[in-house]
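A quick aside before the break. I want you to see a complete sequence-to-structure record at least once, exactly as it would be stored in a machine-readable document. Don't worry about memorizing anything.
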Amino acid sequence: MTRPRVLVGVSTLLMAMSACGSSPACGGVGVVAGVGVYVVHEGHGDLAGAWAELCAKGECVKDRLPDEDITSVDLPLPDDVGPDIGPVRLRITRQGADRPLIDVSAEKRLTHQSDGCGGGVYNGSLAFTMEEGLTAEVPKSVAVAWHRQVMDRATAEGA
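That is the input. The structure line, written in tokens, reads:
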């Protein structure tokens, strides 16, 4: 008759473990310190394959721009970065060119993103468009177009 007690003990342990597993993630899980730029290709000709370099706080990232309408270029920063990062510089150089086609800077103040557990990091986004250049705020039209592009890509990949 001890077998039912073992099953009750195992099921109680499993219930306790699943309750622990459902607690919210803490300690910075899911939040990333950094700065990003939404690069709107329109008005600049074909930027596919061009090098994009994004720099802030003495850190840089360099990557090729894919063939898409808007590209997000992201620069991770150390978790202890504060809100004041000074100028953010974006350079875009066409494939095979010696000098950048685009070389712009803008001041950006990062905002705190909570991890939901008393911690968090600073991050933020800028936008680069033909009309406005590099701006410290992302225009709503760019955010909407980026979201639509991401959703269209996800739909196409799921088909």
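Two observations worth writing down. The beta strands are 34-40, 51-56, 59-64, 70-76, 84-93, 102-109, 111-114, 120-129, 133-135. The chain has a mean pLDDT of 84. We'll return to this after the break.
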